[in-house]
Amino acid sequence: MSKDRIRSSFENKTWQEIKVKDSWQIFKVMSEFVDGFEKLAKIGPCVSIFGSARTDEADPNYSMTVEIAKLLAMKGYGVISGGGPGIMEAANKGAYEVGGKSVGLNIDLPFEQFHNKYIDRDKLLEFKYFFVRKVMFMKYSQGYIVMPGGFGTMDELFEAITLIQTGKIARFPIVLVGSEYWTGLLEWIEKVMLAHGNISPEDLKLYRVVDTAEEAAEHIFRFYDKYLLKPNF
Fold it and tell me: A single GO molecular function, which one (predicted)?
């Protein structure tokens, strides 16, 4: 057999093996969806809090996140975080300290992300796939509190805005905490994206910027009072 035929046979076999592996991966994805749906459906109304995993406990944003989570939990909302350190830990800590429901959607990463100690043991979910994890945030959150963060925080923020903008999910409150942090981005959205006609003026109303824990929590509460809606159970 010629070298070309041997190479072709090897490449075809490898490609077939890859396709088989991809097909079986579907069942891994399905198992994460099933586990997430079954656990989160039992928890009740929740608000997700996002922000940097790198935020130190001494950072004012950490303590503000703890306070926001406490206010939400005392009002009956569960608090969902990404399950890790930093802002995620602060969110779970606030809910935990007042006896609220503390949920963590942890992601398996090679060199970081370990779940924090403030998550209720029966409300800790581990994910391999980012996209499955994001579906859980969207499906089971009554609102988003977005603290200063990096690329992951931006990803979750713009995912929510896009789904609401396109009508793929019902509108819910999105609160950006810290005007100093968010002003540059929001000015760019208005002066560049809006000016180029890539979004509409109504899209600027899909989020609210606040500077205190009380304002952040109150916006969530007022949203459901205003629209005469009840959090989903």
Answer: AMP nucleosidase activity
